[in-house]
Amino acid sequence: MTDKVHLGHTARKRFGQNFLHDPVVIERIVKAINPKPTDVLVEIGPGLGAITEPVVEKAGHLTVIELDRDLAQRLQEHPVMAGKLIIHQADAMKFDFRQLVQPGKKLKVFGNLPYNISTPLLFHLFDYADDIENMHFMLQKEVVERMTAGHGSKTYGRLSVMTQFFCHAMPVVEVGPGAFKPAPKVHSAVVRLIPKPISERQDVPVAVLNRVCLEAFNQRRKTLRNCFSNFATAEQIIEMGIDPSLRPEQLSVEQFIGIARWLHQQEQ
Ligand code: SAM
Asked: What backbone torsions phi and psi does residue 180 show, to the nearest 5 degrees?
């Protein structure tokens, strides 16, 4: 039997299927999620249920979003979990998470995400940051490093700024390829994301911040004077309290937000 077949299911590469099977890793992830019966829990990509089952055991209920019709069907027929799951056979990238929010209760979202779509899926979820209490995601270790990097680090870039605009982000667990079937080529890590209050970001449109990041990190070897020449002069950068001879990776997230706020005001 090949590494691709796990519990009678052949992993589908197009759905980014790498199934967790290491009980120690699964326990650590569930501990990080800390599911409680009063939580509104949502799992993206439950697959064969490696994390689903222990979470349901603790919480008694769970909503799952699974794109693979066969896997959704399997969960529907699961002898223990079936009655405790609300199953959406759907694409999480197009899913309206707001429909799951309950009065006075935000969502706790988690999953071992398909790595091929992890960045666009994260951006989709950031749209719902105000409806989410926390998120725990298994991702490529390198992606977690970029999300949590501070300014001055080599891995600091657009994903760091955009993630930290929406959330406090911290790595929780590192996981080697051997914990999965089939084993991925890369190392993985779980990141914890706690959305920041909307008051910290409501006057900065995401699209403007994204544009500032693109201008900056597409040319990360250049100085800010050159990176931002499309929309600000060196004098204007100085007026924002920023040295235009710095390079983009030297700017803090707060400084990026400040530039986006300034640019948005200019364009109004
Ligand atoms: N949670 C399981 C585990 O840890 O063993 C499976 C993780 S596997 C890396 C990713 C899961 O996400 C698969 O079950 C896959 O079918 C599902 N998936 C892939 N693309 C998806 C999408 N766009 N929306 C929802 N689920 C998706």
From this structure: -120, 155
